[in-house]
Design a protein that fits this description.
222 residues; mainly beta; 10% helix
Length: 222
């Protein structure tokens, strides 16, 4: 039962500590993440265990960079489809862009890209069919390295404290030129390489106009 007005709004269910919480979320195929939850929704409804791992990070959108925390939810259900251990960003929604308590946050493209999607605005239907990406692994911040493609360059924008990326010596504004001799410049290929837990990668970056080779061992921080 979606609401189709401007950005579609879709119901979903989060399971955490054996409790299932229903919520409404923006259905946002332009957001490069799985789930984004407002801090108020998380505090009031999604009760995390005190032992739950959370890491400080930041994300960037049309409003610029915002500080957030990243963790995982035990299960997220979208229609009949269930996903385990889904990465979720938690943020203080100072301007209430998610209209809490009406909405809890948004469902992003790292989850939605696993489906072929038809939005039927006339009949107010959303049809989702699993595609070849349905069983792709989620990004569990295996390196703590955040980067975006902008102006023809893949630029480092965020490095989580205590992460493999920080220990390897990455700096904000480093430009990624290649990973393990892959010079494709394809962000999704690079993300897949950085999710290969246990791998030792050689990454060529450009820093202040000079090429630098960085060695990093991939491991999950969530």
């Amino acid at each position: 039962k979606p609401l189709l007005a401007s950005i579609p709004i879709q119901g979903g269910r989060i399971r955490e500590q054996d409790k299932e919480i229903a919520g409404r979320f923006y259905f946002d195929t332009g957001a490069g993440l799985c789930l984004l939850l407002s801090q108020d929704f998380q505090t009031d409804s999604v009760k995390f265990s005190p032992r739950k791992k959370m890491h400080n990070t930041q994300a960037e959108g049309l409003g610029g960079k915002a500080k957030m925390k990243i963790t995982t939810v035990k299960e997220f259900r979208l229609g009949p489809y269930r996903f385990k251990k889904v990465p979720a960003y938690i943020f203080d929604d100072d301007y209430n862009v998610t209209s809490y308590p009406y909405l809890g946050g948004l469902i992003g493209n790292d989850l939605l890209r696993r489906f072929n999607i038809i939005l039927n605005y006339e009949k107010r239907d959303i049809h989702i069919i699993p595609n070849s990406h349905y069983r792709d692994p989620f990004d569990y911040a295996y390196t703590g390295l955040g980067f975006y493609f902008s102006d023809g360059e893949i630029r480092v924008t965020d490095i989580m404290q205590g992460s493999p990326a920080e220990k390897a010596g990455f700096k904000v504004d480093d430009i990624i030129m290649a990973i393990d001799n892959n010079f494709s410049g394809n962000v999704q290929i690079y993300k897949n390489l950085l999710q290969n837990q246990g791998a030792r990668l050689r990454i060529l970056i450009m820093r202040e106009g000079l090429p630098v080779m960085v060695n990093m061992k991939v491991r999950s921080i969530l």
